[in-house]
Amino acid sequence: MFQILQPIMAFDILSNPLVCLSLSELNDLEERLVALRIPFMQIRELGQDRQYGIKESVTNVPNDLHKSVDCLPRNVNDSATIYVKLKKRLSFKSHFMYKCVNPNQYNAALY
Q1: pTM of the complete model beyond 0.70
Q2: Are residues 54 and 41 in contact, defined by beta-carbon separation less than 8 angstroms?
């Protein structure tokens, strides 16, 4: 027999899927480097009631994973961590995100 689920009970069935252990250990910048597409948007306060909203259009930038892997140092044993600056465009002087990246975790998440 079929059971009719109450709206509150549907949450247990529709829970979030399990995430791979190598992906759960990544920091914010490493997650963006592994992603196939990187979204950029400006979230700001709107009006007097101070609700947050997207101010301009959302830019969806495709990420070529092979190029990002090739930019990392060849010998991973030389450095345990690398500082990476993520820019929206190469022509911009300022960076969007600047953090320390562990190449071992990055490669484990890719493969």
Answers
A1: no
A2: yes
